[in-house]
Amino acid sequence: MRSWNAPTVPSLPGDGPVPALWDTATASFVTTRPVDGAATLYVCGITPYDATHLGHASTYLAFDSLVRVWRDAGLRVTYAQNTTDVDDPLLERATATGVDWRALAASQTDLFRSDMEHLAVVPPEHYVAVTDVVGDVADAVAGLIDSGVAYRVETPGSEAGDDVYFDVRGAERDTSWHLGLESRYDAPTMARFFAERGGDPDRAGKRDPLDPLLWRAARADEPSWPSSVGPGRPGWHIECTVIAEQHLGATATVAGGGSDLVFPHHEMSTAHATSITGEPSARQWAHSGMVAYQGEKMSKSLGNLVKVSELVSAGRDARAVRLAITAHHWRSDWEWLDDDLADAEARLERWTAWAHGVGPQEAGAGTTPLLALLRAALADDLDTPRAIRAVDDHVAAGRPATAVDVDAVAALLGIDLRR
Ligand code: 5CA
Ligand code: ZN
Q1: Does the Cβ of 78 fall within 6 Å of ligand 1?
Q2: CATH number assigned to the domain comprising residue 257
Q3: 192: in domain
Q4: 324: which of 60, 204, 262, 413 is 20 to 30 A away, CA to CA?
């Protein structure tokens, strides 16, 4: 599927350090270990039934910082992201609003692309719609049935066969994966999140309450595809397993998304991967914090949304939106306050005035003190708040901008001050 247009990312003198990043699975900082100078990233994409809100934006900006820092460290980066363009909430919204589900997904994906362009997010090389890989997902499910870690559950109401579930206890016996390997959650926490986040612990006929759906057999009035496991559509976790593996190989350098995906989504995705390839989905797991608004997690289902597209169409500067979001640490939970944007706009104005005073570029200009500060902050678990303070201090102290400084703000923080 078409990705979106790339922002201009100036190249900077020398290479920055390879970053250390917090890893959910080991609860420790892990320094990226590139393989042959390359790093791969899988980030869970949107379910396109409503516009990009600041929570989504914050998650994609966190991973955008990682991509920018990796590139600055001289790594060749391959980035893949999905869209969950067929799923229960999308189908429910389409039915409720009388819109065709495909049209809804297409329009919201387009809006997402334009939001990402406004926020200067570096696009993934592989932007993959689940509806484009249904056959591959079915084949993976067939393989799991063959290897004995997936089973059919009798499905009244479907004339097209039975749903297929993943056998978590079987996978624990047969592979190096076990429940909690990625999430580190205890059993009650897993049970709670499984029920809250799309799982069906009480489904009759399952071997274990935590067994996740791999394949949903066709129902009347639901989209379905003919496949090697019968007509139906993919379960949620297996889609990300298959897309990541297709584009990045067995084990991505980093996989992630928002912290609401720690369990069951990523636990089960890596369980599926381990059953399929013998290897986990990722060497490291990265999870961004949740953005709240009006006291609660910003979410499409609650409707407490501040949308990027609405801010932009109201004439607000998307660079200020990016600055306002990245003034928070990527892993912390935080609440959007309506004043945040005005504060960021004021900061952007100060920075722009500073950048416009830039002198002519000296030939072969080397690194600058500000570039070194930005690189050090971002290599330390993508500390964008510290990087922003470094620019603030520089500007407030009246230190003149060099061309390299302005390029560094554009390349590393994604804020183009030359506009
Ligand atoms: N399609 C699935 C992933 S395969 C999905 O979770 N879609 S989503 O549209 O609900 O979320 C898209 C991304 O934004 C996910 O990485 C999710 O973790 C993140 N996200 C959702 N809400 C918030 C929020 N309030 N704050 C920060 N990140 C969020
Ligand atoms: Zn996902």
Answers
A1: no
A2: 3.40.50.620
A3: yes
A4: 262
State if residue 257 touches ligand 1 by the CB under 6 angstroms criterion. yes
Question: Residue 239 is encoded by which pair of tokens?
Answer: 């889609």
- Token digits for 157? 């109401």
Q: Are strands 20-23 and 28-31 parallel, antiparallel or unpaired?
A: antiparallel
Q: What tens-digit pLDDT sequence spans the chain (419 residues)?
A: 999 999 999 999 999 999 999 999 999 999 999 999 999 999 999 999 988 899 999 999 999 999 999 999 999 999 999 999 999 999 999 999 999 999 999 999 999 999 999 999 999 999 999 999 999 999 999 999 999 999 999 998 777 799 999 999 999 999 999 999 999 999 999 999 999 999 999 999 999 999 999 999 999 889 999 999 999 999 999 999 999 999 999 999 999 999 999 999 999 999 999 999 999 999 999 999 999 999 999 987 788 999 999 999 999 999 999 999 999 999 999 999 999 999 999 999 999 999 998 876 665 678 999 999 999 999 999 999 999 999 999 999 999 999 999 999 999 999 999 98
| Closest C-alpha among 197, 414, 381 to residue 286 | 381
Question: Residue 78 corresponds to which tokens in the numbers above?
Answer: 């391959």
**Ligand 1 site, residue 291, Cβ cutoff 6 A:** yes
Distance, in Å, from the CA atom of 376 to the CA atom of 302, rounded to the nearest integer, reads 38
Residue 298 CB–ligand 1 contact under 6 Å: yes
Phi (first) and psi of residue 144, to 5 degrees: -70, -35
Half-sphere exposure of 321 (CA within 13 A, CB side): 28
pTM of the model: 0.97
Q: Are 326 and 384 in contact (CB under 8 A)?
A: yes
Ligand 2 centre from 44 Cα, in Å? 4
**Counted domains in the chain:** 1
- Measured from the Cβ of residue 146, the count of other Cβ atoms closer than 10 Å reads 9
Residue 149 lies in a domain: yes
**Among the listed residues 87, 218, 88, 222, the one whose alpha carbon sits nearest the alpha carbon of residue 161:** 218
Q: Please indicate, yes or no, if residue 390 is contained in any of the structural domains.
A: no
Partners of 213 in the β-ladder: 165
If we measure between CA atoms, which residue out of 288, 259, 256, 253 comes closest to residue 269? Answer: 256
3-class secondary structure, 415:
coil
Cβ–ligand 1 distance for 328 under 6 Å, the answer no
Which amino acid residue places its CA nearest to atom 7 of ligand 1?
46
Looking at all shown ligands, the one closest to residue 83's CA atom is 1
**Residue 8: inside a domain:** no
- List the domain range (segments joined by +) for residue 172: 20-291
